[in-house]
Write a structure and sequence with these properties.
With 322 residues, the protein is α/β, with parallel strands linked by helices. It has a single domain, classed as Homocysteine-binding-like domain (TIM Barrel, Alpha-Beta Barrel). The chain has 12 helices and 9 strands. The strands form 2 sheets. The chain has a 7-stranded parallel β-sheet with strand order 1-2-3-4-5-6-9. α9 links the parallel β4 and β5. The C terminus is likely disordered.
Length: 322
């Protein structure tokens, strides 16, 4: 993994979009407890195809298909723990191969972010959206440290630790990261409104806590409704006191109906691109998408990034870099 002092965050402006829901659109079954990680077993070539489509759309970063992978999840399925470690490595290898194929014809700097979800995602009961876990703090550190140790030996450039619902889990992640001082990560929170993370703490407080770590590249907001993003960028900036950049990758704007297990609303890539312009203007360093976004959304974000950077470079001041 690339040491943190070699990360040039200024080259990372456009993130990729959803992986799991995009795989589902391509007829992959993600209904099991490992979610998109099931596709590593059944159709890894489809994951590679999604990566390629995001790169063609203009993404500067690929997130790996590792969000849901953990030893606990594999034990639940009666599979050996070594399968979880192998899946983590495989997810990075697929992204690295996709990057290598793309840059042969399109010379550019493409980053690989090894995706890790919160403890609640492994429970696959929606706990990541409230963060009320029945697990001790030390055990929470161990949960994250086990996966981080595996990814530390891969080709990933940094970790994307995502959809974090609480300040306590963010602190556990920092403790796990400190066991590997050579690693870098962004830590991204999920928020139900324009001020708070899912567990209820102010995002400003969470941003202040993680910004102090030299291993944290950026403070993120993901898996959040688009209408809250501009306000949350401001909250994160205030909490971080401009020490770290803020990145955002919200959902498409559709909402999940748990009773019918369907998505409601419309995913409008053009409208998402217009919102992305506002998020860049608000100070977001990088923009991408989470649930239900796809390559068309990321193409619109890439256009917004070009439009935002060209007429007024001062929108992205030097002080926003780590």
């Amino acid at each position: 993994m690339t040491p943190r002092h070699q990360i040039d965050f200024s080259s990372l402006r456009v993130l990729d979009g959803a992986l799991a829901t995009e795989l589902e659109r391509r007829d992959c079954d993600i209904s099991g407890p490992l979610w998109s990680a099931h596709v590593l077993d059944t159709s890894p070539q489809v994951i590679a195809a999604v990566h390629r489509d995001y790169l063609r759309a203009g993404a500067h970063c690929l997130s790996t298909a590792s969000y849901q992978i953990s030893a606990q999840g594999y034990r639940e399925l009666g599979r050996p723990v070594r399968d979880a470690a192998r899946a983590l490595r495989q997810s990075v290898e697929i992204a690295a191969d996709s990057r290598a194929a793309f840059v042969r014809d399109n010379p550019s700097r493409i980053w690989i972010a090894a995706s890790l979800g919160p403890y609640g995602a492994v429970l696959h009961n929606g706990a990541e959206y409230h963060g009320r876990y029945r697990i001790g703090f030390e055990d929470l550190i161990d949960f994250h440290a086990e996966r981080i140790a595996v990814l530390a030996e891969t080709q990933a450039d940094f970790l994307a630790i995502e959809t974090i619902p609480s300040l306590e889990e963010a602190r556990a992640i920092l403790a796990a990261l400190h066991l590997h001082p050579e690693l870098s990560a962004w830590i991204s929170f999920t928020c139900p409104d324009g001020r708070h993370v899912a567990h209820g703490e102010p995002l400003r407080e969470c941003a202040a806590a993680v910004a102090a770590s030299p291993q944290v590249l950026a403070i993120g907001i993901n898996c959040t409704a688009p209408q809250h993003i501009a306000a949350l960028v401001a909250e994160a900036q205030l909490g971080a006191r401009q020490m770290k950049p803020v990145i955002v990758y919200p959902n498409s704007g559709e909402t999940w109906d748990a009773s019918t297990r369907t998505w409601r609303g419309a995913a409008d890539p053009s409208g998402f691109g217009s919102l992305a312009r506002a998020w860049f203007a608000a100070g977001a360093q990088a923009v991408g998408g989470c649930c239900r976004t796809g390559p068309a959304h990321i193409a619109a974000v890439a256009e917004a990034a070009r439009a935002a950077a060209s007429p007024n470079p001062s929108v992205y001041p030097e002080r926003t870099r780590p």
